[in-house]
Each structure stands twice: as C-alpha cells, then as structure tokens.
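Q: Here's a chain of 216 amino acids. Please give me its 3D structure as tokens.
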Amino acid sequence: MRAVKPPTAAQRRIIEAADPRTGRLSGTEAQLQALVRARLAFRHPRPPHACFLTPAGHRVRDEAAAPASPAPEPPPAPPAESGVFAARTGTETERTGAEGPARVREVRSAWEGLVELRRMTNPDAARDRPCAWERAHLVQAAALALEAAGCRPADPDRPGYRVSPTPQPEAVAVREPTPEGIRACAAALERAGWQTSEHAEPRGGGRCVLASPRRV
C-alpha cells in the first residue's frame, strides 16, 4: 500500500480554515483536488460538489488545534467501502466473519462511522437522517441500521429479518417471520431515520415492511 504523504503547510492552512460545523473546505480547484487525492477530503456527490474533510482530515485539524492532546481515532469507513465489514442482510447462505461480542463491536463501530458520515455529508450536518451513501447502498444501509439496533438477521440455523431490494426507487423490503419481529424492525428503522410502511405480501399471507431513507 502506498504511504500517504503528510499534508503540506498550505494544505494544513486550508484544513484549519474548514467550516467548524460541517468541515466544508474552501480553496482553488487544484488545492481541493490535492486534498481529495491525499484522502483528507472528499467531494459531495450532489452539485455543487463541495469538498468536506474526511475523518483523517478532521484528525489533522484536531491535531493543529490541540497538539498536546492525543488525536482521536478516525471513525471507520462506511461498511460497503471498507472491504472487510458487511452488515448482514439475512440473505447470506452461510455465516462468515466474527460472532458474539466481537460482532457486536464491529457493528457498533460501523454504525458510529456511518453516523459520522451523515454529519460530514448532510448539508445541515444532521446525524439522525440518512445520507447520500445510504441512498446509494439501500440494502446494506438498512441491514446495518437493523443489526445496530439489536435485530437478528436470518441465517441457515435460525429465523430473523431479511432485507432485499425492490423495484421501487429508494425502497427496500424487510421480512421477518413474526408480527412482533416485523414491528421491531420497523421501529428500529424509524429510529435510524427511515420511513416505513407495513404491507401484506401478495402470496402466502405474510407481511413485510417497505422502508425508504427519510430526506427531511
């Protein structure tokens, strides 16, 4: 893996001048692009494609503000981008990765990272509303919200929730074999900033929840 060069003095000045609430950066296009290449900033996917500090960029700014204090660890990257962690959708054919307390820690860390991503990328820095990454990774985002809330995914040995895509834009379907489980999943997603509605399945007489990321 290529070593990341430390920021230059000019880059540090830009980082230190970032908006204290949102982490939004100001500078020339060349300066901002250099920070993006250094993984100290990222571009918002929607126009005007402003640049914001990444967790690593926040750490550089924190180090400048309080050099005598140890810098906080940056939050983990979103689950689908980390290449290691993946929220369990309940559709897996076999269990992989950590189990028990280790899995609980992984899920909690990933959820905290996603909440931090919301703070950095939502225009109003809202932590209680899904961000663009979640709307681009609906199944993974909904599964992480459920698992972080303590809901149990299905696996080959036990029943539980299953998250799957739907033909509707920005909507996933969540199925759970019991009415209590369906209600618990809906409540967990609503607390995580999703809007939900319960529907009867066209076949089999069961029920499912349709969930979409809340925008306001």
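Q: Can you summarize the key feature?
A: The mean pLDDT is 84.
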